[in-house]
Amino acid sequence: MEHNQQPTQFQEMDSGEKRLNELGYKQELRREMTLFKTLAISFSTMTLFTGITPLYGSSLQYAGPASLVWGWVVVSFFTCFVGVAMAEICSSFPTTGSLYFWAAHLAGPKWGPFSSWCCAWLETIGLIAGIGTQAYAGSQTLQSIILLSTGTNKDGGYFAPKWLFLCMYVSLTLIWAVLNTFALEVIAFIDIISIWWQVIGGLVIVIMLPLVAMTRKSAAYVFTSFEMGVDSTGVSSKPYAVILSFLVSQYSLYGYDAAAHLTEETKGADKNGPISILSSIGIIAVFGWVYILALTFSIKDFSYLYDPSNETAGAFVPAQILYDAFHGRYMLYQEIKGSLIHQYGDKFTQSAKFHQMQYGYVQLYVL
C-alpha cells in the first residue's frame, strides 16, 4: 500500500520543489506565491516612475532629448538578452538568493566559491546603494510636495532645508525596514496594489500630459535634437555625455531578478519565475519609453526647467514640466503625490528583495 502511494506523492510535488530535490537543495520556505504575486514584486522592484522621474532631468541635461529617448531603446534591447539568459538559468536553478547559487554552479568547483562570493557582495552593495538613492528620490519628491502645497517657489512656498531633507530620508528608510518585518503575503498584497497604481496612474499621466500641454515639442526635436549642458554638467565630450544620458535607463531597468530570489516561495517556480522576469522587463521597457516620450514632448522651455527661480526651484525637472502643462499647482500636486506613492511601493519592495537575498546568503554562508 505504501509502495503504491509514493508515485502519487511524487507526482503531486510542486515542479519547483522537485527541481530543488534534484539539486540536493532542501526546501525550507512555504510555496504561497502565485505567478501574479511574483510578477507584482518583480515589477515593483524595477524603477519605472521612481527611476525615470528623479534622473530624467540630469540625463536630459547631459546630451538632450534624442540621446535620452533612444538610450532607453538601446538599454531595453540589451536588457532583454540579459533577462532571457537569467530566465533560462532560473528555470534550472529555482533557489532562494539565486544569483550567487548560479555563479557557484556555473563557474565550476575551482572558481565557484570565489565567483559566488563576488556575486553576493556586488549585489549586496548594489542593493544598499539602490535603497539609499531611492530614499533620496523619495525625499526629493516629498520636498516638492511640501513646496507646492504651501505655494510655489515664486509665491513663497516652503522649500525643505537640508536638515529636514535628511530627516525625510532617514524616515523613509526606517518605514521600509519596519514594513518588511511583515509576512511575505502582506508584501505581495501591497505590491499588487502598487502594480495597478503604477499602470493606471501611469496611463493617466502619459495620456493627459500631452493633451493638456499648451505647447508641445515637435517629433524632430524629441527624436533628433542633441543638446549638451556643458556649463551645468562640466562634460564637454559628446560620447561621454551620451553614455551618461543612458544612466536613467540603466538605473530604471534593473531589479527583475527579484522574481528569481522568490522562487523557493513561488508555486511552479521553474516556470513562473522566468515568466515573471521576462514579463516585468517587457512591461517596464514599453511603459518607460512612453513615459519618457510624454515628458519630452511636453517640455515648454528647456533652459527654464533648470532655472533656480522657476516655480519648482529648478530642483525637480519633471515637476516643472507638469506645472507648465497643467498651468497650476493643484493637478501637479496630485500627480506628484501619485509619484510618491509609486516610489513608496517600489522601494518597499526593493527592501524586501534585499532581505530575501540576505536570508539566502546566510542560509548558504556565502558572505
UniProtKB/TrEMBL annotation:
Membrane-spanning parts: 35-57, 69-90, 163-189, 195-214, 235-254, 274-297
Keyword terms, alphabetized: Membrane, Transmembrane, Transmembrane helix, Transport
Membrane topology: Multi-pass membrane protein
Coiled coil: none
Main location group: membrane
Domain of life: Eukaryota
Protein location: Membrane
One annotated Gene Ontology cellular component of this protein: membrane
GO molecular function: transmembrane transporter activity
Protein name: Amino acid permease/ SLC12A domain-containing protein
Species the sequence originates in: Gossypium darwinii (Darwin's cotton)
